[in-house]
Amino acid sequence: MDPKKKEKLQTWSEINRNRKRERKEWKEKSLLKKKKVAQIEEPIKQSTDANQCQIDNIELSTVSFAIPGSILENAQSIELRTYLAGQIARAACLFQIDEIVVFDDYGDEVNTKKSTLEDNYGMKTMRHCCIQLARILQYLECPQYLRKNFFPIHKDLKYSGLLNPLNAPHHLSANEHFEFREGVVSNKPVKPGRGSIVNVGLRQDVHVDRLLTVGLRCTVHITSENLNDKKLKGVVVSPDIPRKKTGIYWGYSVRLAKTLTQVFSQCPYKQGYDLTVGTSDKGSSLDEFICPSYKHMLIIFGGVQGIEFALENDPALKEDDPRLLFDEYLNTLPQQGSKTIRTEEAILISLAGLRPKLNPLNPPIIFKESSNDVDLSCSIVSSENNVIVDEMSRFD
């Protein structure tokens, strides 16, 4: 007789009892394994959190410039107005300007055409030329895949097709891989307490950790390593984190000021601008200028009639001499060959002349773009062929 048949058959209760015991043992082993992994990862996480906190607390030095919106009124047509605004945006991007302030050098005149626009600090009603300039500057700074969400059809943007693209580092295509991206919160349904879905210009949306208002623009740090994953995860960060962490230029902000006084008084930085520079052909020569160290620098350009005209139309300022308003009052192009320098020309000339003299207290780290030892987490990389993309090869 076969000995296997002599074995006693197990009852269903015994089989279930054995299965429960095996399941309990497997859970205990799995729990022990998770504890070991957590013990290994905890110091790394604490170190990462400490580094992130240190990065967040750094206040980088910034450069801002202020221009009067009236310079658009000196253009002969709507097309030239648009192109002039585009030249200013290009100059700001080339020299990595952090903030552009558009102010009204005519003051609060009653019988002037006015418009309304929202900047980072709320709705503002000002002369139409100031609003138009600010709107075009905002439009060019915004990544292409987000423009339809924030800029509906408007007559101020009618000739935006004439504008030269900024080719800014944060204007990424769907094939370019970088750890930070700008996005807009979509209205896709998400379970309560599970954050939000953000469109960042990739083929897949990113699931972020915070519940945000639909339609809000935000900066996302993508934590998923592979952009081809079905589900991408990310963390919402402050817009200044990409530059703090990697040194990459992340665009400029636009602020509206109704008078010259508000350029100073509504400064977004807690301690204000610690170095202010006025530009005029009546100032001292730039060649003799020695730049002191600064946290936040502001350069102010005048319109067709100069800074003196803005000073006269500002009821809050009693000084007659514009030199008293600034730490430095400079002539950035001594012995000029023309009687006048247009504002868009003065911006390029001044920023080019000041650039080698700047002495920021907390400069951003240098962004490594094309080195053999470059860290791919801090570089813009094509997800298709894993090669570093040349900035000048990308078009808006």
UniProtKB/TrEMBL annotation:
Domain of life, source organism: Eukaryota
Family: Belongs to the class IV-like SAM-binding methyltransferase superfamily.
Official protein name in the record: Uncharacterized protein
Species name: Cryptolaemus montrouzieri
